[in-house]
Amino acid sequence: MRAARWCIATMLAGAAPLMAQAAGQTPPKGATASAVAHPETWPVLAMQRQRDPRVEARVDAVLKRMTIEDKVGQLLQVDIASITPADLETYKLGSILNGGNSAPNNDEFAPAAEWLKLFDRFYDASVKRSDSRPVIPVIWGTDAVHGANNIVGATLFPQNIGLGAMRDPALLRRIGAATAAETAATGIDWSFAPTVAVVQDDRWGRTYESYSEEPAVVASYAGAMVEGVQGRVGDDFMKPGHVISSVKHFLADGGTGGRDQGDARVSEATLREVHAAGYTTALPAGALTVMPSFSSWNGTKMTGNKSILTGVLKERWGFDGFAVGDWNAHGQVPGCTNEDCPAAINAGLDMFMYSGPGWKQLYANTLREAKDGTIPAARLDDAVRRILRVKVLAGTFDAGRPSSRPLAGKFDLLGSAEHRAIARQAVRQSLVLLKNQGGLLPLKASANVLVAGRGADDIGMQSGGWTLTWQGTGVTNANFPNGQSIWRGIDEAVRTGGGKATLAVDGRYTAKPDVAVVVFGETPYAEFSGDRPTLEYSPDDKSDLELLRKLKAAGVPTVAVFLSGRPMWVNPELNAADAFIAAWLPGSEGGGVADVLVGERDGRARNDFKGTLSFSWPKRLDQYTLNRRDAGYDPLFPFGYGLTYAKGGSVPRLDETRPAAAGGDQNALFVRGRLAPGARVVNDGAVTVTRIDRLAQEDSLRLAFAGAGSVALQQTQAIDVSREANGQLSLLVDYRVTGVPAGQVTLGMAGGKTARVPITGVLKAAGGDWAQLVVPLSCFADGGVGMGGVTRPAVIASTGPLGIDISGIRIASAPGPVTCGTR
Ligand code: BGC
Ligand code: BGC
């Protein structure tokens, strides 16, 4: 009875399953929790790329000669950290990829030539065949999401959120083409871009990968980007210099309530009208691949949702390219593991994206299932046909060795003057002027300018995640031979104009400057490690605000340049600055900021602001689901807002009241005096623990070791930090030494085993100021700690007397390069 009622509800309204779940009724076992009920209401898309009978004939000819082993091989894409070229001599796999942390020789800074060389080796192995079966070259996929961002020297374009502020599809097309050309220089034939998420909750760590909260903006961009990357159908489609694109993450990755890999609890109508927007232009433009999302729709994983993958994408929309999985996402489909998942293939996934040691198992399991009919022969052939079709259309069969391809080895394309000029134009156009009190901007080029703030001279910080490393952390300016920091750009412009610029990250000066530019904001993150509980900018560290206030108090007119991957609650910072620019994550061409900020000698503008918000800016820190179409829409700055020199405009003093932050974060182990949920402090031996004040009442711990002992954070339930470890995050401890260690001191972590890092030397050298210990989680993992079940995330042990205060313990990206050891 209950089952029947539930099914009827689903048919009547897409929102019904959500209501049923909210009421505590779970759908009956075996029922589809979120099948598209009305495919006929989804638009029919007019594809510009028609089926070409010659292509189909070639596909059929290859397919006919393939054994079932060959076919199953095509369904696998394996990360280069998990496979060697020699493996492809035996296993004829469809594709390889480099995940965000994978690179040739395990070196994220490997020169471009190494990428090309490695691809040649994989390619050669893939085409080596001594039998008469068809030769099908392997293809390599990469995340070229804001330029060819895995390659040292590449032009780094603004992240998508900044591009959204430009509202310039024509420029986007040129960015796509430049990115494709730089990718092709390394021989690589496929980019996992564009992301067409329509982000509705800005707490999500991938908000910056989204062009806009507004479906129309995403739709106006997606097709243009695909055309830039792949070329235009009927013109330069997949001609040299273009690469395969992948539209991602299908579908409603931006609707998951601010949680990475979360669940979009929305109606079918919202799925169709909001989240599908990008596909309605990307697919007609000829996108060759689509990446199903890690996330779910009303409880069902997209990667296993047949009604979406097959029903909507392939049948209703007529998509005839292939669906490539996200990183082991198939392993999250119920009943599946990373090494075994016929359900995803049967739902419509065509290629698994796999990372880990078990790809041979995935191959063997899939082969068995293809042989015993668990995966029907027709489905297998359909998947392989799609992959072959893309390979034929992309020219894979005729392109030859990667290094022999027209653009391969032309490494001067990486960061070429032409591409950098496009990126710099994009930076100029993406800046959004939020405030310009008293017309402080543009700055006179003849002025004496102080440039301050942590983001002023940091190309990594201005570029964000997916920059050389997955998280975008662990890089220095030296890793960007063709890049320019925002400071360098300002310095150049001011010097050219006869003025003088000085860099002082901490904002100190001897002679009072005419004006200060403070560059600050979010530090890089990717995916889940960027998820936040609220939109408050830097809740635990208000030093940027203090710097702005200090300059204001000293009577120095101040310009704030805010780097961020999302709109944030910055009312105090807005109040403390005379002018405020949302610069997003502009990438390698920091000079574009000065192009707009710094005027002529007499202060006339050289370039006016063009950017307007593609995301609504919050008035309160809990307005993370603020979107233009909301009933009772109440933003600080609405969608479309953006001041210009021509128009001007002023901002009144803003409310700085800060409501208590909501939501817990397991990685904030001890922050502002609060312990993470389920954590407590335990001690052992000759040590006492008391509470003291650092920034707020009793927000810190004072540890007094009279002799040997230890103090630990103990979790009631073990926490899983394997993704954090995989993502190269670190354990960060804010501390101050109050009594120099007399014995040996270690910082440890326990989960099954305990691993300890010696910190005696660091503590002895520390002096009495607040400092931070940074230990990469990988050090603990290498020491045998089970990252999937950490019971004591931080243990300080000493063999003798010691005094130490602790004001913060968290798992986060390290603010700079780290090695296994301590800093
Ligand atoms: C991300 C994708 C990316 C893939 C390969 C996944 O974790 O979600 O956006 O394309 O990894 O790096
Ligand atoms: C990879 C990324 C991937 C992520 C998924 C990382 O180790 O480098 O490409 O997106 O894992 O969690």
Describe the structure.
With 823 residues, the protein is of the alpha/beta class. 28% of the residues lie in helices and 18% in strands. The strands form 4 sheets. Strands 18, 19, 20, 21, 22, 23, 24, 25, 26 and 27 form a 10-stranded antiparallel β-sheet that branches. An 8-stranded parallel β-sheet has the order 10-7-5-4-3-2-1-11. Strands 12-17-16-15-13-14 form a 6-stranded mixed β-sheet, with helices on both faces. A hairpin with a 2-residue loop joins strand 18 and strand 19. Bound molecules: beta-D-glucopyranose (2 copies). One beta-D-glucopyranose binds next to loops.
Q: What class do helices, strands and sheet pairing give?
A: alpha/beta
Number of helices: 25
Chain-averaged pLDDT: 92
Low-confidence sequence ranges: 1-32
Q: First CA to last CA: what distance?
A: 63 Å
Ions, cofactors and other bound molecules: beta-D-glucopyranose
Describe the main β-sheet briefly: 10 strands, antiparallel
Helix residue percentage: 25-40%
Task: Please tag this protein with its features.
25 helices; alpha/beta; 823 residues; 28% helix; binds beta-D-glucopyranose; eight-stranded parallel beta sheet; disordered N terminus; ten-stranded antiparallel beta sheet
